[in-house]
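Loading example: each entry is read as two labelled lines plus one structure line.
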Amino acid sequence: DQQVKQNSPSLSVQEGRISILNCDYTNSMFDYFLWYKKYPAEGPTFLISISSIKDKNEDGRFTVFLNKSAKHLSLHIVPSQPGDSAVYFCAARPNRDDKIIFGKGTRLHILP
Amino acid sequence: EAQVTQNPRYLITVTGKKLTVTCSQNMNHEYMSWYRQDPGLGLRQIYYSMNVEVTDKGDVPEGYKVSRKEKRNFPLILESPSPNQTSLYFCASSPLTGGGETQYFGPGTRLLVL
């Protein structure tokens, strides 16, 4: 039973437009949520995180929104750039000292 | 340079032949973890460790062992590999301080078990 769900295996977005990647979770005990980006033949790299006490965290072109009542978070990338083409993993952990649970990932294609 | 290193990067082996994949980090991180990535399944945690001599099972620990004798090293041991352990493996480390802390991932080890 998946606790972290990324229901879109892939997403294509025009360069310059907004990319929105979605993630749903089932465990209300999750305290921290993270997004990772992965290029082929490389390990995932951390992108942005959000604590459950916040509803928004912004870092440059990347913003993560958290809706606790809906158990939903989203990653917004604006404007989208060619280098953003990658697989994006949503992840969650119940507290800072516990295991991290990843979603299956969403492959983002930025179209020229 | 802060990094997580894994060796080997690629490995082909046969069923039943014991193997070890090493992982080392130079950031003095307390938390280390092993994941496997499979098509359609994303990243699944195998084992994790919150400090020396402290290890715990992740979501898919069957068929794997780990040890944490030193803070910097966290080897993954496959005592008797089977074809269903063919996968891409990632080691990761992170500090245990604060909230939303990040994990640093190694470059991955691609394993093929024949």
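The mean pLDDT of chain B is 92.
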